[in-house]
Amino acid sequence: DQNGQTAIAHTNIAFIKYWGKADLTLNLPTTSSLSLTLNEYYTKTRVEEADEDSLLINDLPQDGKRIHQFLDVLRAEMGDFPPLRVISENKVPLSAGLASSASSFAALTAAVAKFNHWDLSLEELSRLSRRGSGSATRSFFAGFAIWEKGDKDENSYAHALKTPDLPIALVVCKVSGMVKKVSSSDGMRRAQTSPDYQAWVDESAKQLDEMKAALAAADIKKVGEIAEANALAMHNLNLTAEDRRFTYLNQETVKVLEQVKALRKQGFIAYATMDAGPNVKIITKKDQAPAIKEHLAKRFRKIQFDIATAGPGISYE
Ligand code: DP6
Q1: Which residues pair with 28 in a beta bridge?
Q2: pTM exceeds 0.90, yes or no
Q3: Does ligand 1 have an atom closer than 6 angstroms to the CB of 135?
């Protein structure tokens, strides 16, 4: 409309993780990453011209330091624009390892670009959003996306990955709604001090190639195997950091991981991935997701379970 612009971005879950920075200012990653955009979790963001930059999330005023810095990056990159009131509706459990920064910065980038009538491709929007949050680069695209790490500002952005129609689903286990104690940025910095870090980077490149092949073959079991190995190795970096070891996982996470293994023994396709929090996302086939959810719900009374499926790319209102 006349006074503002609204954009909607869905969150994404990485199957090959982004976990380390090669350049802190440009937010260039040490590895390329691959994700699935999800249908069930999204951020809807409206920007309006105002007297000063401000931020409201789910009706609550926020200290928008990170947003303000990002808006200034956009001003420096794209040319000045007026101060903006940013009004965000977040349908992602905040800071609990269901990357809300991905959908937030993707929606904000898209809304600001449209508000200013910048004529940009999804890849160009992805590139800009990287400066707000790395995982945001992958939230512009429906289904699977790859963030190519690149080696400079110009070539580090995501694109859609075409795959055959895949009946893939995630069983999302909300192990704890507690706010994470280590930010992703700090977590990455620490993980990069692990003696295993370079080996993880090298292995990640191989896993990305294997993952692309598994997706092309619509082999969900293989996709799950690779994703779980990549995620567990990422969490191992946190546990082996020289400056200083930590973990996002807790006792409940470990118990769920043990059940994921038990489900496999029963013949289910079930593989786990975790981000900067204790929640477990179980990769499976759509027709197995309800039974997996039921199996777990019986054993973990306090955990909430959702089933998530592939979601759309960026949209506007
Ligand atoms: C574990 O995108 O939150 O979810 O670039 O510092 O904002 P910043 O990091 P962020 O990191 C997400 C890390 C992850 C893995 C992933 O999504 O690839």
Answers
A1: 23
A2: yes
A3: yes
